[in-house]
């Protein structure tokens, strides 16, 4: 199906289901997807090359200059965004100077748009590295992915490299000591002949158990909204997401639903 890649370092602002008016920052190369995962629902398409490119990442200076220019322009028009969001063509923490980029963004945000939240969407696969973990913790909204509590589903749904298991991701999430938001994408479908459904009772129980162990500030439960590389994936209806959210809230964790 028709997935897409962002063509600029800064994109938007766009109206985001989860973040309000969001100005996007794409920290990975503009012409290809770069990620440690290869999620079957990724709106950027498949991860074709898991080897990190040695070039193509926008420099820290280019990102800072582009952001400053855009925020100046938006401020002039009186249309400052609710969020400055690291999203784009893959995993933002792969940027070789991710921590420096976070610091620049906070500084520029404070100068031009102090009400905007600095938001990172990450799969948490590199959060075991202290520099990356500390930078993620400096974001106003540190939103990290956990789609399942079952290893086989993790391998099918998120398709990490062989060196990363679900245990590694859980370990990384716990390192934030509750200073995180977990995003869980719910989906049904099949891939490589295997059925995938992270809404079954077994899956929900496994997730609830992990949410309870990790105790994030908040959980965002959502489903696909755009085209995906695997055809036939099923969007989870809003009432089902709401029923899952009600069970999460029984754990005492604030939960938002985005259908
Ligand atoms: S972690 Fe995010 S960017 Fe990477 S493959 Fe999954 S959905 Fe796409």
How many strands appear in the DSSP assignment? 10
Mind describing the biggest β-sheet? 10 strands, mixed
Q: How many individual domains?
A: 1
In angstroms, what is the radius of gyration?
18 Å
Distance between the termini: 20 Å
- Enter the CATH topology name: TIM Barrel
| Global structural class | alpha/beta
Helix content, binned percent: 25-40%
Unreliable residue stretches: none
- According to CATH, the homologous superfamily is Aldolase class I
Please identify the top-level CATH class. Alpha Beta
What's the assembly state of these chains?
single chain
Mean pLDDT: 94
Present as ligands are: iron/sulfur cluster
Shape category: globular
- Total number of helical segments? 7
Question: Could you outline the blueprint of secondary structure elements for this entry?
Answer:
Layout: E1 10-16, E2 20-26, H1 60-76, E3 83-87, H2 98-112, E4 117-122, H3 130-138, E5 141-145, H4 151-158, H5 166-174, E6 181-191, E7 194-197, H6 201-214, E8 218-223, E9 234-235, H7 238-249, E10 254-258
Parallel strand pairs: 2-3, 3-4, 4-5, 5-6, 6-8, 8-10
Antiparallel strand pairs: 1-2, 6-7, 6-9
Helix pairs in contact: 1-2, 2-3
The structure holds iron/sulfur cluster.
Residues 35, 37-39, 42, 44, 47, 90-91, 123, 145 line the site of iron/sulfur cluster (SF4).
């Amino acid at each position: 199906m028709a997935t897409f890649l962002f063509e600029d370092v800064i994109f938007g602002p766009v109206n985001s289901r989860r973040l309000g008016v969001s100005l996007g920052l794409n920290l990975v190369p503009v012409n290809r997807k770069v990620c440690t995962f290869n999620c079957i629902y990724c709106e950027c398409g498949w991860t074709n090359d898991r080897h990190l490119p040695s070039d193509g990442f926008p420099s820290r200076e280019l990102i800072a200059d582009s952001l400053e220019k855009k925020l100046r322009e938006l401020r002039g028009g009186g249309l400052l965004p609710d969020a400055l969001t690291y999203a784009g063509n893959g995993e933002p923490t792969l940027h070789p100077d991710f921590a420096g980029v976070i610091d620049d963004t906070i500084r520029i945000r404070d100068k031009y748009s102090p009400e905007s939240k600095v938001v990172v969407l990450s799969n948490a696969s590199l959060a075991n590295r202290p520099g990356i973990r500390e930078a993620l913790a400096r974001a106003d909204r540190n939103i990290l992915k956990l789609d399942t509590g079952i290893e086989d589903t993790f391998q099918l749904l998120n398709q990490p490299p062989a060196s990363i298991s679900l245990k590694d991701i859980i370990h990384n999430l716990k390192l934030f000591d509750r200073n995180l938001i977990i995003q869980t994408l719910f989906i049904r479908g099949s891939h490589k002949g295997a059925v995938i459904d992270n809404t079954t009772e077994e899956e929900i129980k496994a997730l609830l158990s992990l949410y309870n162990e990790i105790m994030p500030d908040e959980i965002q439960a959502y489903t696909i909204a755009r085209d995906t590389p695997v055809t036939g994936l099923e969007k989870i209806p809003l009432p089902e997401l709401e029923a899952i959210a009600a069970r999460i809230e029984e754990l005492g964790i604030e939960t938002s639903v985005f259908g």
